[in-house]
Structure formats: structure tokens, C-alpha cells
Amino acid sequence: MIQRKKLYVYSGFIWCVLFGLMSFYWALGGMVGVKSLGGSIYQHALKREASFIVIVWLTGFMKLGGGLFLLLLLKDWSIKVHRILYYIALIGGVFLFLYGLANFVSLSLAFTGLLSMQIEGYALKWRLFFWEPFWMLGGVLFILSSIKFNKEKNTSADYRQN
């Protein structure tokens, strides 16, 4: 049976790869799903502005980099490197989760009419029920990966001391 640490790391890796592949697809000109993002992102995608396409490529590579970073949590490291990896993964996960949560809250307020936003209903629903929870899922996977990574190191250190 796969260890929980590995399960979270591999799940987070798959999340990053899927997210990165979406960006590459859109950067190459694919339009399926772009309308679900809404707002200015959709407008830039329709115009195929060169600077915007560069940003989409860069975000795709950053997402893949996040997945590769998570794979580092599968290896044993020195205490110093371990701490650095743990905090990067934890802080990154918190950032991803809070980013999705903040958007989720503001979109929920827009959905209920308490906040006025420049986003059409189609994109609002997609962002509220798919995209923002998807960001939060990634955050949770990074957080759980970092916690299990740290717990495993502390458990093995306690075992070696006894």
C-alpha cells in the first residue's frame, strides 16, 4: 500500500501536471475551457496577444515546476534542506489555498448579488464551482505533502535517537 506522504505528493504532482498542461494547451491556441475563466483573461485569449501568451507559457512551466518540487519531498535530505523544502511546500500550499479561498469568497458574494463584478454568469459559475475549488485542492495537497514530509522526518529522527 502506498504511504500517505507518497499519495499526497503524487496527487499534488498530478494536480500540477494537469494544471500545467491546461496552460500549454491554451498557450498553443486551444480554446476549450477558456471561456470558463471569464473577464479579461478570456478577452486576452481571444486576441492572442503575444505578451499574454508568454505569460500563459510561463505559468504552465511554473505549474510543472511545482509538481517537480513536490517530488523532492520523496527523498531524505539533510536537516537544513529538509526545513527549507518543508517551509516552501507549506507556505506555497497556504498561498494556493488562500488564493482560491479569497476568489471563492468574492465570487460567492458576486453570485449572491452582494458584490458587483465584471464577470458573466457562465464564467462566474465555473470559477465558483470548479476553478477556485481546484486552486484550494492544490493548496491542500501541498500542505498535506509538507506535513507528512515533516512528520516522517521527525518520526525517523525520534527513532534514531532511541
Automatic annotation (TrEMBL):
It comes from the Bacteria. Keywords: Membrane, Transmembrane, Transmembrane helix. The chain crosses the membrane at residues 7-28, 50-72, 84-108, 128-147. Pfam families: DUF3995. This is DUF3995 domain-containing protein.
